[in-house]
């Protein structure tokens, strides 16, 4: 596959996800909460997690309908987490995806409710009355819930908030980000794989791939926080240093953090090699995209 072909696939799938989200996120929810939901999830973001779902599903010859629902569900969970993380009681950020954060635009109470509603909608999207087998619905819900809950994203955010101003070693930092950021990216890969058939060995290898790029994403995020401007990132640059948060750059140094991101990409590629899939090139290129991105 040529890089140009990959970019065409990426844009096409991003558009497909956007169309599905536009159809499934209601504008007419009571008292304007639907408007706030749509503001928080539509028209922005790299859609990396949906792309991982769809690429993994393709690699295992899975159900497109189930994968599209899984892709949108993962993005809804990701978007709700950003809405809540940006609030004054968490990171207190005013810029996200190049526009004011939801609580700045609509108020704190509406932002909290919009995030709550997006979380619930994610599981509604995964459980249609027809089109996805009940057993697959249950498996997808289980994978997403575990990644988003106390053992994953929410637990990682709790560790993050508790670690402000405290010295952390690389092991503790890795555990925090494996939960906060990595778990949902890893789950994206596995949800896509669950939409088709895999051997236990392939499932394990895809899990390792997801874990590697999940951590690589955070390492690169930490690098970009100190090397890019807010206009490029679409969010406030330098906020980790401002809030005295431990990062891969503060613990390893900038150049060592860059080397670590490359090492994690190599681990992701090696895991794909072990998976034995007929065509995992898009997953491989997505790993490159995670490490080479500038925003």
TrEMBL record:
Catalytic EC class: transferase
A GO-annotated cellular component: cytoplasm
Cofactors: Mg(2+)
EC number of the protein: 2.5.1.10
GO molecular function: (2E,6E)-farnesyl diphosphate synthase activity; metal ion binding
InterPro entries, sorted: Isoprenoid_synthase_dom_sf, Polyprenyl_synt, Polyprenyl_synt_CS, Prenyl_diphosphate_synthase
GO BP of this protein: terpenoid biosynthetic process
UniProt cross-references to Gene3D superfamilies, sorted A to Z: Farnesyl Diphosphate Synthase
Keywords for the protein's UniProt record, in alphabetical order: Isoprene biosynthesis, Magnesium, Metal-binding, Transferase
Similarity comment: Belongs to the FPP/GGPP synthase family.
Protein name stated in the entry: Farnesyl diphosphate synthase
């Amino acid at each position: 596959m040529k890089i140009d072909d990959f970019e065409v696939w990426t844009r096409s799938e991003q558009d497909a996800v956007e169309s599905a989200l536009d159809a499934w996120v209601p504008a007419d929810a009571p008292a304007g909460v639907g408007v706030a939901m749509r503001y928080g999830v539509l028209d922005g973001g790299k859609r990396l997690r949906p792309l991982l779902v769809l690429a993994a599903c393709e690699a295992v010859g899975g159900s497109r309908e189930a994968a599209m629902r899984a892709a949108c569900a993962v993005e809804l969970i990701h978007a709700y987490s950003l809405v809540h993380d940006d609030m004054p009681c968490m990171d207190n950020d005013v810029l996200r995806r190049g526009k004011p954060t939801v609580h700045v635009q609509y108020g704190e109470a509406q932002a909290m409710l919009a995030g709550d509603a997006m979380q619930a909608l994610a599981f509604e999207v995964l459980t249609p009355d027809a089109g996805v087998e009940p057993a697959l619905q249950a498996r997808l819900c289980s994978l997403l819930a575990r990644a988003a809950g106390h053992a994953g994203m929410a637990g990682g955010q709790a560790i993050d908030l508790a670690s402000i101003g405290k010295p952390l070693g690389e092991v503790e930092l890795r555990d925090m980000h494996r939960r906060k950021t990595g778990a949902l990216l890893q789950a994206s890969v596995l949800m896509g794989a669950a939409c088709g058939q895999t051997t236990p060995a392939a499932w394990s290898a895809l899990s390792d791939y997801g874990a590697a790029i999940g951590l690589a994403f955070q390492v690169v995020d930490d690098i970009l926080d100190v090397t890019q401007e807010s206009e490029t990132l679409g969010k406030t640059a330098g906020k980790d240093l401002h809030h005295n948060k431990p990062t891969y750059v503060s613990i390893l140094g900038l150049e060592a953090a860059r080397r670590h991101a490359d090492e994690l990409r190599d681990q992701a590629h090696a895991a794909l090699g072990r998976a034995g899939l007929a065509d995992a090139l898009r997953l491989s290129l997505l790993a490159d995209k995670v490490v080479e991105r500038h925003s």
